[in-house]
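Hello support,

Our group uses your service weekly, and this is the first time we've seen a run hang past the timeout. The protein is Delta-aminolevulinic acid dehydratase. I'm not sure whether the cause is the sequence or the server load. Input pasted verbatim:
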Amino acid sequence: MEFKRLRRLRQTKALRELFYETRLYSKEFIFPLFIDDGKNVFERMPQLDGIVKVSVDRLHEILDEIKKADIGGVILFGVTSQKDEMGSYATKDDGAVQQAIRKIKEYSKDILVFADVCLCEYTSHGHCGILKGEKIDNDKTIEVLSEIALSYAKAGADIICPSDMMDGRVATIREKLDSHGFVYTPIIPYSAKFASSLYAPFRDVANSRPAFGDRKSYQMPYQNKREALREIEADILEGADAVIIKPALTSLDVISTAKEKFNIPIIAYNVSGEYAMVKSAGKLGLLNEEEVIIEILTAMKRAGADAIITYHALEAAKILNGKEL
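Update from on-call engineer: The timeout came from a worker crash unrelated to the input. Re-ran successfully.
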């Protein structure tokens, strides 16, 4: 009887590794950082085991770890009590995120700084835009977002990442940056950002839960793949240099299809809830945490991700660069 013996190439570790179709590298990881506007803050977050909230004056402590891990970059989120209806703290030149950008670029030119652009961390109502009654004023919001983006670019951010899911934000931000001389600053929007319960730990840490209602009128229904592809296409046409898709684990089909359909780099966002599930299961001894981390990150890359925003970045880099599984 004739049949294919595909197992021949799986017989030894050396053979298996030689023919891996998907490989992970630490330079492909982007690590989220929560930047507190206080002083002497280096606080471990119970919602996200192993993740810290840090003030600018102690930022060097985590930067030492990031540099040693040889990961590609960081994405910054502000944490502040200085909130108002307009989220005006987000545009201040001496804001925590702006200070952190300058600090990181002084520390090392090799650490890419992705600046998340949104209003939810800065508004008293916790929504991602400017309110008109209890609804988001889309066009007013994108003007404010463009001012935030410009402030981050002036501080030295390498990449601007609008995460608000407003219509027209990429074009508006591109026009604002170009008109101020930042023509080479890339914009990488969250193009397919689904309304997900998996963001809960992040919202607790960033103190960005909405005071009323939810975000389903601007974040996408997770039931809709075709709509996600339309969102991605619209952002590309407006000038996006790459796109972010989140949550990663529940969007692998979207990542895969987008990779085939669009000739543009894709970043998967391995979100806080996905991270928390792995950490919790690992603590309970239900799984081998290190093996699962590498497996899920590999799945994201196999689906088509060129880079991954992940809270696992530091530990995954240590596993890849310092240990065999």
